[in-house]
Amino acid sequence: MPREEPIILLDKVTLCYDSGAPVLKDVSISLYKKSFYFLTGASGAGKTSFMRMLYMGIKHSSGKLKIFTKDVSDISAEEKYKLRRRIGVVFQDFNLLNHLTVLENVALPLKVMGEQKERRERQAKEILEWVGLANCFHTLPNTLSGGQKQRAAIARAVIARPDILLADEPTGNVDENSANKLMGLFYGMYKMGTCVIVATHYRQFVDKFKYNELHVSRGHITDNSCERLGIEQ
Question: What distances in angstroms separate CA 228 from CA 25, 27, 103, 214, 223, one per listed residue?
């Protein structure tokens, strides 16, 4: 029986900024539903750029990038919007809307999907309780600590059960107990069929949970068994 098509496919993808120096070089990777990857590498190696490229926040310079089997090299704003609705994202700057309460921020993806107010608020409250923010429903984000903002951003990213979850350093602002709980949440998403990619520089989590690993170094990406996933160095 043939294997399903990858949910994310990079075929000889290179990413360059205006300076011309490549951040990623000729990378080829296929990622599938119900998979869990740590994305590792030194600071500045290109982890965040890789995640933003998968979210279509920045455009790759060459090669083929497919998300949900759709070539995103030259798609319309409407097509990009439709694809993004299936992707949950946690970036390091959180991107919470300061004019909305924590509850409204977390419920926003469900509102965009047309979910009724009572149902989306109930689901938002449940997940906020899970991440330890039960006392912050009506709080504005600019009054939260960094760790609280991080947990709110994670709650918002997972509430709609996305097909792809991209989390950039999601445990960087929380204590170890909270980090373990968040990893449990990500594991639950993975078990439900989500492709989860967690960028981290915390080696102890990579070693503890022993999920797949994509390592970024000098523009190349290798897996955790050192098998090449892109070009030869």
Answer: 13, 10, 43, 10, 7
By the 8 A CB rule, do 103 and 124 touch?
yes
What pTM value is reported for the model? 0.90
Read off the pLDDT of residues 159-198 as tens digits, 9 standing for 90 and up. 999 999 999 999 887 888 888 888 889 999 999 999 999 9
Contacting residues for 206 by C-beta, under 8 A, at least 6 apart: 38, 40, 200, 213
Contact 56, 80 (CB under 8 A): yes
Q: How far apart are the first and last CA of the chain?
A: 34
**Helix (H/G/I), strand (E/B), else coil: 32:** coil
Handedness of CA 157, 158, 159, 163 (dihedral sign): positive
pLDDT in tens, 49-91: 999 999 999 999 999 999 999 999 989 999 999 999 999 999 8
In terms of Cα–Cα distance, which of 126, 113, 48 is closest to 82? 113
The count of C-alpha atoms lying within 13 angstroms of the C-alpha of 82, restricted to the half-sphere facing its C-beta, is 8
Distance CA 38, CA 201 (A): 9
Residues 6 or more apart in contact with residue 194 via CB below 8 angstroms: 33, 34, 88, 161, 162, 163, 164, 165
- Determine whether 74 is exposed, middle or buried from the number of CB atoms within 10 Å of its CB (0-12, 13-18, 19+): exposed
Angle between helices 146-158 and 102-112 (to 10 degrees): 20
Furthest-apart CA pair in the chain: how many Å?
54
With contact defined as beta carbons under 8 Å apart, do 101 and 139 qualify? Answer: yes
Please provide the DSSP assignment of 120-159 as one string: HHHHHHHHHHHTT-TT-TT--GGGS-HHHHHHHHHHHHHT
